[in-house]
Amino acid sequence: MKKVYFDNAATTELRKEVIHTMVNVLKTEYGNPSSTHSYGRSSKSLLENCRKEIAKLFNAQASEIIFTSGGTEADNLVLNSCVRDLGVKRIISSKIEHHAVLHTLERLENKGDVEISFVKLDDRARVDLEHLEALLKDTSKKTLVTLMHVNNEIGNILPLKKVALLCKQYNSLFHSDTVQSIGHFNVDFNDVPIDFAAVAAHKFHGPKGAGFAFVRKNTGLKSLICGGGQERGLRAGTEAVFAIAGMTEALRISYQNLEAEKKYIQDLKDYLKVQLEQNVPGVSFNGTCDLYEESTYTLLNMNLPVSAEKAMMLVFQLDLKGIACSQGSACQSGSNEGSHVLNAFLSPEELKKPAIRLSLSTFNSKEEIDYLVSVLKEFVES
Fold this sequence. Notes:
Aspartate Aminotransferase, domain 1; 12 strands; Aspartate Aminotransferase, domain 2; 7-stranded mixed β-sheet; 3-stranded antiparallel β-sheet
């Protein structure tokens, strides 16, 4: 059976260079980086070189890169510490954030620790910047804004610098989940006055279980995990040196090849959109994923013109044909509530149609798209 992978927003295939790097480190750099003997010092040196290299890619300081187990931990670190340690009493967010953010906010609100406000979205799920500014004008409570850079389900791009400057204007802190953008877009933390960001390696052909939080210096953030003094006291626990080395290699390659790979993947997305429109009459696209400047080049989220009953079989039928994609987000598979992102802005009529997310990488091809489209065409027409 032909097997095709179109679920790169959920996770990506490891680059062979990343695997080679990690195996090498596992073999040779097994010292604990907190140990003072030569084995430990060697691992510590590798760890700090990775930190410096990552910081350089984003025009940050090495001390501002805090290694974590991934994006979820980084989001939790920032949101919880902002409320517990920095005196934040109000958080402004949106209803299309990743659950790593939304569930954390829900818990903080239920404990009575903070007030949550949601910014308005338009009919394509774009953040209403005028409404955001209106919310920010109330400066009676110390405020944190948390809005993701690239949405993991519909691909919408937040104007990161505009939001950061708006937050700075009203003396509010700004955190962004950049899990879907780092490795795919250039981000300059010196140019964009953001305070915190979350990153996960497995979204850009690195290993699962590795990521980092960008924490602007002198913010006063404190650790959530008690233990040793690793990561400048912000994240206790022995660092996964091999995974961090793999993440660094994945980032290095991603940014070395960024323009060429971006063009290749954008061409694939354009081809996919045209083939869908020509072969599946009635297909529609969600969010801004069909708008070149306002969406990531790696993702299409679409509605198919089939009945609700037939929709229940869609992903199952695709899987039988060897096609991997997501109905909604992979992070909420098994939920019967549907996509919270699509529920936030689609009409009841639109929500009756099955929505699937197709996310692309440099490992995909036009031949794979042709196969996918033929299967979807057959499914819709059957």
